[in-house]
Amino acid sequence: MRIVLANPRGFCAGVRMAIDVVEQVVDVLGDREPVYVYHEIVHNRHVVERLKAKGVRFVDDLAEVPEGSVVVFSAHGVSPAIRRQAEARHLTAIDATCPLVTKVHSRAIRYARQGYQILLIGHRDHQEIIGTSGEAPEQTQVVESPADIPHLRIDDPDKLVYLTQTTLSTDDAGVIIAALKAAFPNIKEPPDEDICYATTNRQHAVRQIAPHCDLVIVVGSRNSSNSVRLVEIAENVGTRGVRIDDVTELDPAWYPKGDETILLTAGASAPEDLVSAICRHFVEQHGATLHLADVFEESVEFGLPLSLKKLMLANGIDPGDRKVKVEPPVVTAGEYGANAVALTISAKGA
Ligand code: SF4
Fold it and tell me: Cystine design at 111: which of 116, 152, 274, 284 (Cβ 3.0–4.6 Å)?
């Protein structure tokens, strides 16, 4: 059995930053008061459980947060209405919204001010889409598929712009964008891609490697949009894809012969130790060899949010000039025992 490890996989800079923010707030507040997080900080069950174990309290309604407390907004962003609600409850809001989500919010605000109607491509019930729509609710309509287009209420087809959820499948978004352009030839495009680098790179890696594999395993939670999209990308290129939260959900029926080639990847919110546990399982139980497929190098880094820096300064802590960056996951043969031979398949520039 061969396990091909896609690189990049797993944590992106936005997820790393959001988790760091919560951990920093826990450190700053110590035992003095609990830290609240509005919605799951990132869409991964293990990340959320680990933070809960540190005392973090997750809420889906700000009314559950006692007045005057500290609350962290998740990586997916929130609408202005939620920010106002936090102010009204005298909460100290620490904003862990990914800067690439904030970029789409800024675009929505700008186009709405310029009088555009915004067609927001994405999943209606996803936190990111709820937050972005909230910037200009009167002017924004969500488009989930080409089937939605005939039902849109368009005032002026020459004053339209489309924006996109950051974690969509680039394949699916392309189909919807083409349909929008066919229906509204003068629709305006955003200045550059809204789908983020991490989503795009992880999808490209799967699109390139999956055709050479018997199965694609994606580590990520059910509600992780980018993880679910990776499964769809695998299926689009004709290879079975499955999503699991962790090693306990592996099903041997997926690899009946025992000599399959399996691509292993992870959504942007899935911690690398979950991937390592799966590698260890395949090496120990199936004598698998590990093969590293480097498709893209990532070097994106984000600074700490201003709201966190202010909280740190208010508590006598110098935030410095720390940047949050994700180092590529390192896999060594020694880590998995002598019979796991780590080979590198370089597929850079794909
Ligand atoms: S997946 Fe993209 S948009 Fe979402 S947190 Fe990561 S970098 Fe930001």
Answer: 116
Residues labelled catalytic: 128
Mutate to test the pocket of ligand 1, among 97, 167, 197 (most ligand atoms within 8 A of CB): 167
For residue range 175-222, list pLDDT tens digits in order: 999 999 999 999 999 999 999 999 999 999 999 999 999 999 999 999
Q: Whose CA is nearest to atom 6 of ligand 1?
A: 14
Cβ(205)–Cβ(190) below 8 Å: no
Q: How far is the CA of 325 from the centre of ligand 1 (A)?
A: 13
**All domains of the chain in start order, with CATH:** 2-12+197-299+328-346 (3.40.1010.20), 13-98 (3.40.50.11270), 100-183 (3.40.1010.20)
Indicate the length of the chain as a whole number.
350
**156-160 long-range CB contacts below 8 Å, 24 or more apart?**
156/117, 157/184, 157/186, 157/187, 158/186, 159/115, 159/116, 159/117, 160/116, 160/117, 160/119, 160/184, 160/186, 160/187, 160/188
Instruction: Report the alpha-carbon distance of residue 98 to residue 101 in Å, rounded.
Output: 5
Alpha carbon nearest to ligand 1 atom 7, residue: 14
